Amino acid sequence: MDRDDPAYKGQADYSRTVLRLYDPLVLGPIARYVWRCPSDRLTEHYRRHVRDRHLDVGPGTGYFLERSGLASGSKVTILDPNTNVLRHVSARLGGLDVTAAEADVCKSLPLEGPFDSASLNLVIHCLPGPFERKAGAVANVAAVMAPDGVLFGSSVIGETGSHNAVARTMLRAYNRRGAFDNLEDSEEAIGAMLDSSFEEIEVDTVGSIAVFAARTPRPQSLN
To answer: pTM for the whole thing?
Structure first.
C-alpha cells in the first residue's frame, strides 16, 4: 500500500514483531482492562456467527479464526493490505484451507464470493474516515456476501464512548498517530454504517467496544 493512501497508517503498525506481541498484550490486558471487553467475549461472538465460506477482513494475528470452531479443512479467505498479516495468519492456520487476498477493504474487493459470513473484527476503528468511506467499506464486504449472509465484528468507539481514563488517553494517542481514526465513531454511527448495507443489524456495547452483527445484505449491495 502506498504511504499516501488514506488507509496506510491504520495498517502500518503490523510488523512481524508487533504481530508476535499482539495476542499477549492487545488481546490480553489491553482488551480486558483498557477497553473492558475481554477477548473471550469477542471469541464467543465470533464462534456464534462464523459459517462455512467465511471471509475475514483484517484478520490480525488469526487469533479469533484459530478459535472459531471451524472444522479442519474449512475454506477461509483472509483479506488485508499488509503482507505481514497475510503471511502470519496463513502460517498459523495450517488446519484450514486459507486463501489470502492482498487488498484494501475501502476499495472494491477482488473477490467473487459469495461468502456465508464475513468479519470486521477490531477493524472499523482503524479505517480512515469520514463516515462515508467507512460505510463504503461495509458496502464492499456486503457486495460479496450471500443473500442470507451475516457480517459480524467489533470496533472501539470514539469520544462518545464510556471510557475509563486509560482508555481515553490511549484512544487519543492512537488517533494522533493515525493507527486509529475513530473519534467520531459512536455506537449509533457504527449502526448507521451497517444499516446502509444490511436489512437487520444488532449492536451491543461492551466497555469501550461496539460488538455487532448484520444480516441480509440489501439488494443494492449484492453483485
So the answer is: 0.93
